[in-house]
Design brief:
The chain is an alpha+beta fold and 364 residues long. 15% of the residues lie in helices and 26% in strands. The chain contains 5 helices and 19 strands. The strands form 6 sheets. Strands 2, 7, 8, 9, 10, 16, 17, 18 and 19 form a 9-stranded antiparallel beta sheet that branches. A two-stranded antiparallel sheet has the order 1-14. The relative contact order is 0.22.
């Protein structure tokens, strides 16, 4: 099978790490409902763009998936296949585990910020200087602060995405994919004989992502039957977030594909190497907690929808991305009256975001 992936380069500057232990402005003990930090829920719709299959690890008989195919004569769902690799389900409906969603979104968040290389299989000597995984709360990178690290719970929680409950159909069918193989970090380029996972000084070149498209090789024959979500079907879920700065929330929204200039699609589940797993995400509502949420018996959460939601997303994304610097009449950068603190700098790295958009960008 041909290689169908690309690498996002690492920022030239080392990870920007924050001392959690020495920062008393936020934590998990209480909500900091101020103009600087936000807590609430993101309500999401996930639309299947290419077949999605989150493998359960169990191969079942076709009779166990009796709802999969509608018989034109009997008008009943019957099994026509023998053995099928099943997907994760709940109450006979497909779900996407929150852990799967969190991992995918985290990988994007890491790639577009100055974050560590978390959970990599690379050896210690193969990791560029200072990019090793965070393991000390006195030195946490942007992604570890938001998504968690050793001894740090993280500030976001992803819930399972469930197949649209308003649809009475099962919402899944069966498909075929070729046998997939594990990565081969020692593989070499046929022409240059250089390791494809590495660059100069035998260090890994960046983070690996699979594009949405796939050029099928005629020699590769799909042979494995899998249970997958039908194209165009919708899943719904929500994400809790607590004590995020506007920049952190804006970066999270970019990772969720809400930046109109860099509309990213997620790659979820099995078969990413053969073009599977593409999902488009829409934020349909944001529920923001307000200061007196726990000081009253009535709810004090503001629901952002429609134009108000759109404007809020645009505003937070603006804070997350670097803006053009003001210049003087001689086109020289305008000097700032106050130095910019590390915590005030935009989190998003434009070069890495553009590289990622070239791979994961959706045209619609």
């Amino acid at each position: 099978m041909p290689s169908n992936y690309n690498f996002i380069s690492l920022p030239q500057s080392e990870p920007d790490r924050l001392n959690i232990q020495g920062n008393q402005e936020f934590g998990h003990d209480k909500y900091q409902l101020t103009n600087q930090r936000f807590s609430g829920k993101l309500f999401l719709n996930l639309t299947v763009v290419s077949p999605v299959s989150v493998n359960s690890g169990i191969t079942v008989m076709g009779t166990d998936l009796a709802q999969q195919t509608l018989n034109d004569v009997s008008k009943r769902y019957v099994a026509k296949l023998s053995l099928i690799q099943s997907s994760v389900q709940q109450n006979q409906r497909l779900i996407i585990p929150g852990s799967s969603l969190k991992g995918v979104v985290r990988s994007i968040y890491e790639a577009i910020t100055r974050s560590c290389l978390c959970k990599t299989n690379a050896k210690k000597e193969e990791i560029p200087n200072n990019y090793s995984e965070c393991n000390d709360t006195s030195k946490l990178c942007p992604a570890c602060v938001v998504f968690g690290a050793m001894s740090w719970l993280g500030l976001v929680h992803f819930h399972d995405a469930k197949y649209d409950p308003e649809n009475d159909k099962p919402g899944f069918d069966t498909g075929l994919i070729p046998a997939l193989f594990p990565p081969k970090p020692q593989a070499k380029n046929a022409e240059t004989q250089e390791k494809i996972y590495y660059y100069k000084n035998n260090k890994i070149r960046g983070r690996k992502f699979y594009p949405h498209s796939y050029q099928e090789d005629e020699e590769v024959k799909p042979t494995l039957r899998i249970q997958q979500a039908e194209l165009g079907k919708r899943f719904t879920t929500y994400v809790n977030y607590a004590n995020l700065t506007k920049m952190q929330l804006g970066t999270l929204l970019i990772a969720l594909g809400q930046d109109s200039e860099n509309r990213l699609g997620l790659k979820i589940g099995s078969g990413k190497a053969v073009g599977m797993g593409t999902m488009k995400i829409d934020v349909v509502k944001i529920e923001q907690l307000e200061k007196n949420r726990y000081l009253s018996y009535t709810s004090n959460s503001s629901n952002l929808q429609g134009n108000e939601l759109e404007n809020f997303i645009l505003d937070t994304i603006k804070f997350a991305k670097p803006q053009a610097q003001a210049t003087t009449r001689n086109n020289q950068p305008k000097k700032l009256n106050k130095p910019i603190k590390p915590g005030d700098k935009p989190l998003v790295q434009i070069q890495q975001l553009q590289e990622l958009t070239a791979i994961l960008g959706l045209n619609h």
